[in-house]
Design brief:
Two copies of one chain form a homodimer. In chain A, 66% of the residues lie in helices and 2% in strands. With 161 residues, chain A is mostly helical. The first copy, chain A, folds into two domains: 66 residues, Arc Repressor Mutant, subunit A; 72 residues, Diphtheria Toxin Repressor, domain 2. A two-stranded antiparallel ribbon of chain A has the order 1-2. At the A-B interface, helix 5, helix 6 and helix 7 of A face helix 5, helix 6 and helix 7 of B. Chain A binds a DNA duplex (30 and 30 nucleotides) through helix 2 and helix 3.
Chain lengths: 161, 161
DNA sequence: ACAATTTGTTAGGTATGCCTTACAATCATG
DNA sequence: CATGATTGTAAGGCATACCTAACAAATTGT
C-alpha cells in the first residue's frame, strides 16, 4: 500500500477531484466520470488505486476526500496546470480553452526546473507589459505587410505555384 | 495498411531513425534500440508497424529507409523538437540536456498553434537580446539579495537541519 | 415504502508498448 | 568457409488504461 508513484492518469483524477471539490464541495465518482468524460467503471478502478495509494478516502456511494498527501499532490498538479496555462494565455496569447487543453497534457511531464523558469518568466513579462505589447505589435505589422491590400507592382508572380 | 495515425512512441522511432540517418548514413534496428534504450524485440515490433503504415521500408538485416510520407513525418517531429529545445535553451536558459529531454516528451502533445507562437516568440527574443538580458539580470539581483554573503545578525540557525 | 433512477462494481475485452527468453538468420573473421 | 558474435523475430508476459455489459446497491420521488 501507499506506492506514491503517480501516472499521468492518476494525476488527472486527483486534479479533477480537487477542482470539483472547490466547485461542488462534495464529489462522488460520477462527478469525476463526467468531468473526465470516461466510464463509471474506469473511475471506479482509478479510485480504488488512489485509495490503495492512500491519496484519497472513499467508500461506495460516499464522498471522495483527500488524505493530506493526496491533497498536497493534487494542489501540486493544479498549480503546475495553472502556471502553464497562464504562460500560454498571457505570454503567447493563446485562448483559455487551448491553453488549458495543452496544460492538461504537459503538466504531467515537464521538469520542475523548466516549470519554475516558465513561472518566473511569465511573471516578468506581466510586470513589463511593453515586452508583450511590442512583440504583438511586431507580429501585427508583419501580418499586414504580407497581406497588404495593394499588391506591390513588381511582384507579378506572387500567386504562382 | 497505411493507417497514418502516429502514437507518441512511433513518432519517437521516426525521429530516432531520422537523427541516426543524418549521423550514420545507414541505420539498422540495433541502432534504434541503442538510441532509444529499448530491447531489440520492441524495436522489431515497432519497425513492423512503421512498415505497415508505409512510413519506412525495411527488410530483416537490411537498412531502414523512409518513404516520402515517413520522411516528412520524421522531419515534422524533428522540427517540433528543435523549436521547443531552442525555446528552453535560449529563452529559459535551460541546459541542452534538460531542454532536449523535455522537448522529447512535449513534442508529441503540444498543439500546432502554441508551437508556432513559441517559435515566433523565441525568434523575437533572440532578435531583441536586451529582453532576456534584463530578465536574467533581474533574477541574479534577486538571488544575490536573498543569498547575501554576510548573514543577517539574527539569522543564527541558517545552517541547522 | 417501493418502484424507478442513479450510481458503483465486476468481469471480460481491447490496445499500446514495453519486457525476457529462446531461437533463427546473417555477418565477420581467422 | 566455418564458427562465433551480432542482429532480428516470435512467443509469452506484464502493466496501464480505457471500454461495454450485466448486475448490485443506494437514492429519489411520489
Amino acid at each position: 500500500m501507499a506506492d506514491k508513484n503517480l501516472t499521468a492518469g492518476l494525476e488527472d483524477y486527483l486534479e479533477a477531484i480537487f477542482i470539483a471539490q472547490e466547485e461542488n464541495k462534495t464529489v462522488k465518482g460520477i462527478d469525476v466520470a463526467r468531468m473526465l468524460n470516461i466510464s463509471r467503471a474506469s473511475v471506479s478502478e482509478a479510485l480504488s488505486k488512489l485509495v490503495s495509494k492512500e491519496l484519497i478516502t472513499y467508500e461506495s456511494y460516499g464522498t471522495i476526500s483527500f488524505t493530506p498527501t493526496g491533497l498536497s499532490e493534487a494542489k501540486k498538479v493544479y498549480n503546475i496546470h495553472n502556471t502553464l496555462k497562464l504562460f500560454f494565455q498571457t505570454v503567447l496569447n493563446i485562448s483559455p480553452e487551448e491553453a488549458s487543453e495543452n496544460a492538461c497534457k504537459i503538466e504531467h511531464i515537464i521538469s520542475d526546473n523548466i516549470l519554475s523558469e516558465i513561472k518566473d518568466f511569465t511573471d516578468y513579462c506581466n510586470n513589463h507589459p511593453e515586452i508583450i505589447d511590442n512583440y504583438r505589435q511586431g507580429k501585427d505589422n508583419e501580418r499586414n505587410l504580407s497581406n497588404r491590400k495593394i499588391p506591390r507592382p513588381a511582384d507579378s508572380d506572387s500567386k504562382s505555384k
